[in-house]
Amino acid sequence: MTTIEGKSVATLNQMKAYIRKVNPNVPSSVLNMIQYYISEGEIEGVRGDVAFAQSCLETGNFTFSGSAVTLSQNNFAGLGVTQLGMKGNSWATPQLGIRAQIQHLKAYATTSPLKQTCVDERYKYVVKGCAKYVEWLGIQENPTKNGWASGKDYGTKILKILDNILDCDGKQIKEKGVDIMKINVHAGHNFKVPGASGIFSETSEDRKVKDLVISKLKALGHTVYDCTDETSSTVQGNLAAIVAKCNAHAVDLDVSIHFNAATGAGHGVEICVYNMGSKSVPYAKKIATSIAELGFTKRHESDGGLIERNGLYVLRHTNSPALLIECCFCDSKTDAALYKAETMANAIVKGITGQTTSASTTTSNNTATSTTTTKEEKYMFNPVTCKVGDSNTSVLLLQEILKARGYYTGKLDRKFEKELMNAVNKYQIERMKQGKKIGNGKGDGVCGQDMWRDLIAI
After folding, report:
1. How far is 359 from 369, CA to CA, in rounded Å?
2. Residue 439: what pLDDT?
3. Which of 181, 370, 408, 437 could form a disulfide with 402 if both were Cys (CB 3.0 to 4.6 A apart)?
4. Domains of the chain by residue range
């Protein structure tokens, strides 16, 4: 018998290899989210590989052929589908949908309380500890008839998929003739020691680009480590923390993402390298060329858009080949008119790998968002207006989203306190500068329906 509790036996690479094998057209968004099965499972003590195998069964290996749910619902286990024709529940992000599934599996497997806040109202209906084993998830096979699904041999079908996953080669492989790489990526500075500011904020935008670059590289099968520092309160501490994170991994390339500023006098892209003999130079030249193809001026044209900066702390102290991208000038009207986080990230990924990915869902030129639903589909939690003093699931969702985008660094505790209010206010002001009308036309620190629509396109 196979227990639901425990650590994932299958690796991330094995799961990706399996789904690519059985579904060659699997969306990049699916490949990117597989990591959450492992991370969310580890938090609750549930085998993430079992959860992933269950999702493969429920979604037809993410083809959603004959499935009661769709990809945009972020519901990969048929949660809420209690009878034929029901649409099932929806979540605002893939991570929340996977968290709900993991939490349900934990409820079936044990009577232990959740480590994280419950994200599905239906959790309370599960008979806790009624299905310790995967084989017992099928109602027909469950000794107490309290399993997950009514279909015959439901748990056995999950285990068959799991066996196929474990049979896959989890080694680093070549895809489409491209070497799979290990890459460190980080955004420069943090909100305690912020970077440049002009028409837009370097600290905000470098994090958006960083997140997109990481997600796109992972979707292409590369191993990526986020080495961004969000906690240090001094410049030196910030730099040292970034380097320590970078040097914790043996990688092919360290990528530092920044934006330039020159009181409106400069424009264009430049890539900083330690010297012209660095192993990072070929990547740097390709990145500069790729960004220039977006319309940005390539600075230092004679050197391929590169400049030697051997005094920069990150370039001087990282162990692996490193480069620092000054994407463009945040105080240049010319560059600001050209800049989009999505296309900038695409250009960087193309420069590093020669590969491209499909565009992620966006609400505007510069803000990447999580997957959204169509108008016919409803979120499990219909977000309500949130303000200081509130404590509910909508606040938790708000914390999740703003934390993912770098505006909020506090706890995910469902409590709307001053730190979250400041994050909301910062987001509102930044979005209004980009032409959005939210927060009653000012940064009021209240997340109303206008802000929810901007955040997750409900």
Report:
1. 11
2. 65
3. 408
4. 12-167, 187-353, 390-456
